[in-house]
Design goal:
In chain A, strand 9, helix 6 and strand 10 form a beta-alpha-beta unit. By secondary structure, chain A is an alpha/beta fold. In chain A, helix 9 packs across helix 11. Helix content of chain A is about 40%, strand content about 20%. By secondary structure, chain B is mainly alpha-helical. Chain B has one domain: MetI-like (MetI-like fold). Classes of the chains: A alpha/beta, B mainly alpha. Chains A and B meet through helix 1, strand 2, helix 4 and helix 7 of A and helix 2, helix 3, helix 4, strand 1 and helix 8 of B.
Amino acid sequence: MKRILPLLVLLATLCLSVTAARAEDTLAAVKQKGVLVVGVKNDYRPWGFIDPSGQIVGLEIDLAREIADRIGVKLELVPVTAVNRMEFLRQGRIDLIIATLGDTPERRKVIGMIEPNYFAGASNVLAPKSAGLKSWADLKGKKLCAVQGAYYNRRVAQLYQPDMVVFPAVPDGMNALAAGNCVGFLFDDTLIESTLAGGDPKWRDYDMPLPSEDPQLWAMGVRLEDVNAPFGKLLSEMSTEWLKSGHILDLEKKWGIKPSPYLQEMRDKLAAK
Amino acid sequence: MTHLSVLCKPRRLPAIRAPLAWPGLPVGVALAFVASVAWAQAGAAVRPGPIEAILRWGPLIFGGFLFNVLTSVLSMTVGTALGAPLGLLLIAPGRLPRGISWAVTQFFRNAPWLVLLFYVMFLLPFELHVGGVTIPLPDWAKAVLGLSLPVAANVAEIVRGALQSIPEPQWSAAAGLAFGRLQTIRLIILPQAIRRMLPPWMNLYAILTMATTLISIVGIQDGLTITRAAISSDARPEMMLPLYLFLLLLFFVYCYPIARATLALERRLLVRG
């Protein structure tokens, strides 16, 4: 008991002291530390995933590396999930989120989103051709597989009232679809296209029968006070360059993602200026 | 979580009738493993099969598994260091220490492990500022602390149960020989009780080892997280079963001997006791 009580007191005080302020400028702090700590996905191919040597690789990791190179510091990658990434950022565990983070009004209250947005996806459904889906309304009352934490889940559930079956990760949902546990798999349209184009015989009798809906911008996430600070400005500048030069389109090609309409549109718009 | 329910039962020495050398279980697990590999192989005539997947990802997953083992050893050490004095206090003569230690034990023994883990992970900051000194609190340290709290409570109960199982005449005889209370515990009761503590303590350790996979839910890169990431990275959902079974087999190979040794110890105790 003598050992437990102080521990409990310590725990309680720690709980209160978590919100300790970190007021210093992040860019200066990063330069001083000599390392940029970026929260990325490691289970979301091809944006962020691991290779057999344990390295995290992917499109978003390429972007993170370019930022670290520009600042002139080393890059440290921290695998995050949809559950903990914003908390890590607020705590200061990471300096920046590049982890398939959807830019929503609710999230903007908690963290800062870098504009222009570096990517935009839309939602669609991967389904067997035999399912005969014609419109989103056909999903009503049918079992629809989805991945936990995806931003489009709630909207689809409310609008079209399918019976949502939610899985913790992409492979689990895909397995359930292949096993016939649901009529379709709700996912990013670019990823569905890439899966279908991948040539895996397993998906030969599947297609993407519905029009893509609900375009969703992705953003790099920073702490709220960093948006208008030097760190946020630098990121915004780099994002503009990437979009204008079509750099992310090149990266899409490198990682086997179909060119996304948002990136083409942004390139043309920025080039016209 | 059903395996944790074992902890809630009243602790006593079981009458062991199960033969010690029962080969059925390991053989069954091995068969299931082979069958799943064969099943996944059947659907993958063109692309590399599950054997290749296990060879490719095996070293990485094994590294993650070693992290689970390390976490279990550290949690058990911390949990025992906290739980042993707590167990002594449970049979202390004073009403106050007994009451407080009882409350602490009951709280941590009857709270879900995962919930305790969440509290410790998300309430503790990633670094502590104590008077200008920054103490980093890495995720693994927080996970060890989170797991050692329920372990401590269970160790306390093991200690209390073993001490109380020593027949009362031993106490009165010691008192008759003018031993003090602490002397009695140290010289007479503990040496007899430790033998009785060992089997349930080892049992608790085996359960803890398997429970360490809980830390994957809070984003720590343990064996389970890495296995999941590996499955996602190959974009081969059908590799899920073989890779999970590989991880399962690692845990089994580690925990089964502990279970066997526990049984052997209990049996020896039964013969002599």
